[in-house]
């Protein structure tokens, strides 16, 4: 039996500038209940810039908490957090 499996794969690209040089960061999605989903880890270059990519089933990670019933859900936030810290370096509210 020949079976085929398909998976929706999403690519998210993150570019940062004017950060601390050679700083290790993690890009995370903060859920309304406070849970953190790590998307990608990266280290800035000597100039304080970086480009990072997260590749995978990201739509599953950001799917609505109500299972797609159409009800409005609380906002989620993308944050950059220094490795070894809980304090956000940069936070952006998603639409």
Number of helices: 1
- Total domains: 1
Let me know the number of strands.
6
How far apart are the termini? 44 Å
Largest sheet: 4 strands, antiparallel
Overview of the molecule:
- It is a single chain.
- With 95 residues, this protein is mainly β.
- It has one domain: Immunoglobulin-like.
- Strands 3-2-5-6 form a four-stranded antiparallel beta sheet, with no helix packed on it. A two-stranded antiparallel ribbon has the order 1-4.
Notable features of this structure?
95 residues; mainly beta; Immunoglobulin-like; four-stranded antiparallel β-sheet; two-stranded antiparallel ribbon; 1 helix; 6 strands; 4% helix; 43% strand; globular
Give a short summary of the structure:
By secondary structure, the chain is mostly beta strands. Helices cover 4% and strands 43% of the residues.
Spell out the blueprint of helices and strands.
Layout: E1 10-16, E2 24-30, E3 36-43, E4 50-56, H1 58-61, E5 77-82, E6 88-93
Antiparallel strand pairs: 1-4, 2-3, 2-5, 5-6
